[in-house]
Design a protein that fits this description.
With 547 residues, this protein is α/β, with parallel strands linked by helices. Among the domains are: 51-192, Rossmann fold, CATH 3.40.50; 440-542, 2-Layer Sandwich (GMP Synthetase, Chain A, domain 3), CATH 3.30.300.30. The chain has 16 helices and 29 strands. The chain has a nine-stranded mixed beta sheet, sandwiched between helices. α2 packs across α9 and α3 (59-75) packs across α4 (94-104).
């Protein structure tokens, strides 16, 4: 990978981050070594698989697994600067795989489980990954077969957790877990530095071209502190995040923050099972849960239907989608806790959060304020309260690999990054999100549909001349959206089922499928030919049967 296409902070800015203690020379591997030496038997990971407790990994065991996995990757030819894709549900292997990459100076390039064949093929191809680790089957999907079907020639090795034989892949249990690579010396010194590329995450943008976001251990360190310090997390905390740990938010909250602090992560692959999360809270004394609003709605419903012991919980926070006002009151009623609001994005990790000193209901009015190492500014016009949200600071990523022009176009001369979001000031040095400049459609789970990319795929349908994807309010979750496909027909109009089947044939992930279809004679465009999305939104607003 051409990592030299990135744009890390100028030396004067990096020096300031170091002098202020916002960045450090140490790495997460140094944190792991410290905890393995001082609290060897403390649980680092408690992992559930298919609803049952599968494994508890102590800090001593985690340290040994990192060395073993690093040796396995080295045996497969992974070295400094190479990418390794983790195409996995929330399994205990994620943390040692991430850190094994760092041990070799390689880069972890996680692929979210909900990615279809088309999306994961792009990740594998664009990252030029040498190795991809996945499961055999999960949730009714044959991931091993999917990977075998879409793997590009640049992928040298497929590794499968479970039954690897049908697809001719490497057996993870035999090769990674049972073979003592740490005794072979295969993992030669090559550890990634704190400022080296460490995490590569692909995130779809409004142009349809996924952005290849690269973080260092220091940018993730700053992001993790931006969340852990305001709410006072320590090594005594037990953290659980039901969302994907192959996304920056999940990895930052539930993988790297616990390792930084010496705490415990409880992870479960059946991550939509809120009953299991509540059972795990009672069993393991979970103290902190972070989840998108859709997960919290189910958590509330489950606790109301069948209450569990949740006295250990002391912090609940939410991000990724707008928080309904009623949810703030419901969390207080059911769990006796204030709901903390967080804002961040793939490029920044966690950036702002509401604090205990803000008051229990401040999430109704604010998405929080940043820590000293991050700045957030609302660029509003004269007399306007809402404007572009700009950020800069120590948790901002290193740029977009192979997309330097795209990255530089997002920055101004003073280093402010244009988030593509709209916000207003909250009156206390923080922000309140007001919408998105981008055309992403945000579902209640936090999943974001890249409109332009899906439109391009819809246009491939023989009965579609033109298509536009527009978000409209989700009646089940205030502030979130469903997706409507506006279609200009080519001959006999297609049905919604036809469109969904077509997209599924293109290996599009289920959360990206439209919920509704509207036929239209022509898409509204301006004099330059640009689609006027607001007219389509207004049409949806005026239609009586929305939803």
């Amino acid at each position: 990978m051409p990592w030299d296409t990135l744009d890390p902070p100028a030396p004067e800015h990096a020096g300031r981050y170091y002098r202020a203690g916002w960045w450090r020379g140490a790495t997460f591997l140094d944190d792991l070594a410290r905890w393995a030496a001082t609290r060897a038997d403390h649980p680092a990971i408690i992992g559930y698989e298919n609803g049952a407790l599968a494994r508890t990994v102590t800090y001593a065991e985690l340290s040994a697994l990192v060395e073993r996995f690093a040796g396995a990757l080295a045996e497969l030819g992974v070295g400094h600067g190479d990418a390794v894709v983790q195409y996995l549900p929330n399994r205990w292997m994620l943390a040692p795989l991430y850190l094994a990459c760092a041990r070799l100076g390689a880069v972890a390039a996680p692929g979210q489980r909900l990615m279809g064949g088309r999306e994961i093929r792009h990740v594998l191809t664009a990252s030029r990954a040498k190795v991809c680790v996945t499961v055999d089957q999960f949730g009714g999907v044959d991931y091993a077969a999917r990977l075998a079907e879409v793997a590009p020639p640049t992928l040298k090795h497929r590794v499968v957790i479970g039954d690897a034989t049908p697809t001719g892949a490497i057996d993870f249990t035999e090769f990674f877990e049972r073979t003592h690579w740490e005794d072979s010396g295969r993992a030669a010194p090559g550890q990634a530095g704190a400022d080296d590329p460490f995490l590569l995450v692909y995130t779809s943008g409004t142009t349809g071209a996924p952005k290849a976001v690269v973080h260092s251990q220091n940018t993730i360190y700053a992001a993790a502190r931006s969340l852990s310090e305001p709410i006072g997390l320590t090594g005594a905390d037990v953290i659980s995040i039901p969302q994907s740990l192959t996304h920056v938010a999940g990895a930052m909250h539930a993988v790297f923050a616990p390792i930084m602090l010496g705490g415990t992560c409880v992870m479960h692959d059946t991550n939509t099972d809120m009953g299991l999360l509540l059972d795990a809270t009672a069993a393991h004394g979970i103290t902190y849960i972070h989840a998108a609003p859709a997960y919290l709605a189910d958590l509330l419903a489950e606790q109301r239907a069948q209450p569990r012991r949740t006295a250990s919980l002391r912090v609940i926070s939410s991000s990724s989608a707008p928080i309904p006002a009623q949810m703030v009151a419901d969390i207080r009623e059911v769990f006796g806790l204030p709901l903390r609001a967080i804002w961040g994005m793939t490029e920044t990790g966690g950036c702002t959060t509401t604090r205990p000193e803000d008051g229990d209901d401040w999430a109704l009015y604010s998405d929080g304020r940043p820590m000293p190492w991050m700045e957030a500014r609302v660029d509003a016009g004269p007399g306007e309260q809402t404007g572009r949200l700009l950020v800069r600071g120590a948790s901002l990523c290193l740029g977009y690999v192979r997309q330097r022009d795209l990255w530089l176009a997002s920055l101004d001369s003073a280093g402010w990054f244009d988030t593509g979001d709209l916000a207003s000031e909250d009156g206390r040095g923080g922000i309140r999100m007001r919408g998105r400049q981008a055309d992403l459609i945000t579902r209640s789970t936090g999943a974001k549909i890249p409109a332009a990319e899906i439109e391009d795929l819809l246009a491939r349908h023989p009965s579609v001349a033109e298509a536009a994807m527009i978000g409209y309010p989700d009646p089940a979750m205030s502030g979130s959206e469903l997706a409507c496909a506006f279609i200009v027909a080519n001959g006999v109009p297609p049905s919604l089922a036809d469109l969904r089947a077509h997209l599924m044939s293109e290996s599009v992930a289920p959360p990206w499928l439209p919920d509704r279809m509207e036929l239209i004679a022509a898409l509204p465009r301006n004099a330059l030919g640009k689609l006027i999305r607001e007219e389509l939104r207004q049409r949806l607003h005026e239609t009586a049967d929305v939803g």
